[in-house]
């Protein structure tokens, strides 16, 4: 089996998780990760056995790692020279600058949802458009919210043939490690209507008609979506059939808030910790079964998104798409999830 050599540019909240997920795969290896400078994150990279590189090709910055006791192998250009593909997990708004570097190095590239679709002209989520990304030079893995919407809406669309959706996103204010963000004692509406989340679904599944609004609330745990989906007349579905559809779809967890005693995002995250997930992550989208209701042709439901982790397995599947090693998205998803599960002994 040919091992795909993967570089991770940015070893932070997403990058460290992506690196572990790549390391778990039999057909991939992490050839290096980057940090902007010596910090506590460097120690984690060393502990995990990932070669450490500097984000910049600057000798002074590279040498600063050694001054703090870290073995830095070189700059970003050195890392790109030994990689087949780079996964960009750097802070948002650096995309254009990094894209030029990736193109110059001749490597395939992937960005995260913090960048706009226009940067690459192509976006990705496994269930929606894996085949369209097959053998492409580069793409963007869509955001955590867009990934979550795709997971539950694409199976519905595939069954019904059309779908019209309105979604309200109740967004966490910050990740747990972000001390500089808010709001603290407020509910902050996103005064861009529609918000980017719904239309972003159309970058991977343009056939779904969707609009969204969003508010930010003072929590760091998860996002919650309140979704109304209009199904076509004669769809032939029932509430129970939709629930069963999601239960049989990959990367969706359906549980009963009342019977399973998991009524809020706090209990959802506690469940993730209880089942042994590293960092307490939940790659799956969580749907409350007792919050799903089909009334005539209109479907109502709630779902929760763990913003730090639902896109992680998508990055792995996207590597296989761009590298042209697995055309069937369901096979890739199965391989990815099983490898991650085995990696952590779950």
Q: Give the low-confidence spans.
A: none
Order of helices and strands: EHEHEHHEHEHEHEHEEHEEHEHEEEHH
**Level-1 CATH class name of the largest domain:** Alpha Beta
**Which range best describes the helical content: under 10%, 10-25%, 25-40%, 40-55%, 55-70% or over 70%?**
25-40%
What is the total tally of β strands? 15
Number of helices: 13
The CATH architecture of the largest domain comes to 3-Layer(aba) Sandwich
CATH fold field value of the largest domain: Rossmann fold
What is the radius of gyration computed over CA atoms, rounded to a whole number of angstroms?
20 Å
User: For the residues shown, what is the average pLDDT?
Assistant: 95
User: What would you call the structural class?
Assistant: alpha/beta
Q: Based on Cα principal axes, name the global outline.
A: globular
Number of domains: 2
N-to-C CA distance: 25 Å
């Amino acid at each position: 089996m040919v091992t795909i050599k993967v570089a991770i540019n940015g070893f932070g909240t997403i990058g460290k998780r992506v690196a572990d997920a790549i390391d778990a795969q039999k057909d991939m290896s992490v050839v290096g990760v980057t940090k902007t400078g010596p910090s506590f994150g460097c120690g984690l990279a060393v502990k995990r056995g990932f070669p450490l590189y500097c984000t910049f090709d600057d000798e002074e910055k590279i040498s600063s790692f050694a001054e703090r006791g870290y073995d830095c192998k070189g700059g970003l250009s050195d890392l790109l020279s030994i990689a087949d593909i780079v996964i960009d997990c750097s802070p948002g708004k650096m995309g254009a600058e990094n894209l030029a570097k990736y193109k110059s190095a001749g490597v395939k590239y992937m960005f995260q949802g913090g960048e706009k679709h226009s940067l690459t002209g192509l976006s990705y989520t496994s269930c929606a458009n894996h085949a369209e990304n097959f053998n492409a030079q580069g793409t963007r893995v869509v955001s955590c919210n867009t990934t979550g919407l795709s997971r539950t809406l694409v199976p519905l669309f595939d069954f019904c043939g059309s779908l019209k959706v309105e979604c309200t996103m109740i967004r966490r204010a910050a990740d747990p490690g972000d001390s500089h963000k808010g709001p603290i004692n407020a509910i902050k509406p996103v005064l861009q209507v529609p918000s980017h989340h719904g239309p972003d679904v159309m970058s991977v599944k343009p056939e779904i008609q969707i609009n969204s609004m969003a508010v930010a609330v003072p929590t760091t745990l998860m996002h919650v979506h309140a979704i109304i989906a209009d199904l076509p007349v004669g769809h032939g579905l029932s509430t129970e059939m939709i629930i069963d559809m999601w239960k049989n779809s990959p990367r969706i967890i359906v549980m009963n808030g009342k019977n399973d005693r998991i009524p809020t995002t706090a209990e959802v995250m506690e469940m993730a910790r209880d089942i042994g997930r590293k960092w307490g992550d939940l790659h799956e989208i969580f749907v409350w079964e007792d919050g799903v209701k089909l009334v005539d042709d209109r479907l109502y439901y709630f779902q929760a998104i763990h913003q730090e982790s639902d896109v992680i397995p998508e990055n792995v599947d996207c590597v296989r798409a761009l590298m042209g090693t697995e055309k069937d998205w369901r096979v890739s998803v199965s391989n990815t999830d099983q490898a991650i599960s085995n990696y952590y002994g779950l």
